[in-house]
């Protein structure tokens, strides 16, 4: 048991080190591309307040929606983004849609978020949620959400499941499969 | 009976979620609830002294705030934390800031970095490090910033409010409801806190 814990601890520590490097790299690249206005203008970012956003949580078209709340400043969020991208790649033809909901600060949409989307070549739909009245909308997303990110909702019609915390790809895939069957 | 089933299903859900949660050791449902008595602690301050709540003989309570150097949300609230301490320490409710992150994961939250931040910002309150990461799970803090307002009573320091500082992280001048101030004011007037819990986005505590 102790050995298992030790292994997990080592895995977490090493994965986090890796994650820090990745974040640093993205910062550098973001800075480099701030001047690259033309291509960044090609990225259209839909920005919603909660009232505008809630439709993404209430679709009844039998599709499985995987809604991930993240931000470029959130290291564990950035670490798990590739898993959501991989999920999109493997399951988009199986009635699964991934939506990445950025909680980045609005004044950093141009300088941080858009360059990030461009550099990472994110294929999933990215939208931004900008609504300061968090005590009103967080409980509407899920009564179990403390407000920490990353957080994810998976739903199909009226069935939904909420997760506060990080995913591995395997865990994410397993959860989505529950909705497929 | 129905309630018992509900509670059981929540417990099951928590176990199920925690099975897939690599980073979070605290899950929803753990930690203090409103009305619970918070345990005291002894944590190292940025001045190298150990600080406990029991050191504050004259305090009526405490604005215990889990915060850190590296979370953008926490940084946006630094000035407001200073203002809270300025307004309420003299009235018996000092701010006690606790940095809960694992500093191996977040070197920017190391004791040295905390000292620098406290000095540069002119923190007038203790900025403590939860070095063993034993305190924040007891409180049930999940993110930074995360406030726990305590009132000193005969049975101990009772949790009176849990949540955010106010309702506008972006702009202090556009705040409509000052959750913590309202709660402290109510306690100072001997009244019940009206809004005992609020939710806000924050950075998950790094373990």
From TrEMBL, chain A:
Q: Which residues form a coiled coil?
A: none
Q: Which residues form the Thioredoxin domain?
A: 29-181
Organism domain of life: Bacteria
> What keywords is this UniProt entry annotated with?
Redox-active center
Gene3D superfamilies from the entry?
Answer: Glutaredoxin
Q: PROSITE patterns from the xrefs?
A: PROKAR_LIPOPROTEIN, THIOREDOXIN_1, THIOREDOXIN_2
A Pfam family that the UniProt record links to this protein: AhpC-TSA
Report the protein name in the record: TlpA disulfide reductase family protein
Identify the taxonomic lineage of the organism of origin: Bacteria, Pseudomonadati, Bacteroidota, Flavobacteriia, Flavobacteriales
Automatic annotation (TrEMBL), chain B:
Location of the Thioredoxin domain: 32-189
Keyword list (alphabetical) reads: Signal
Cite the Gene3D superfamilies for this sequence. Answer: Glutaredoxin
Keyword Chaperone found: no
- The reply on keyword Signal is yes
Q: What is the protein's given name? A: Thioredoxin family protein
Q: Which residues cross the membrane?
A: none
Signal peptide region: 1-24
Q: Which PANTHER family match?
A: OS07G0260300 PROTEIN, THIOREDOXIN-DEPENDENT PEROXIREDOXIN
The protein's matches in InterPro entries, at most eight in alphabetical order, are given as: AhpC/TSA, PRX-like1, Thioredoxin-like_sf, Thioredoxin_domain
This chain's source organism reads Flavivirga amylovorans
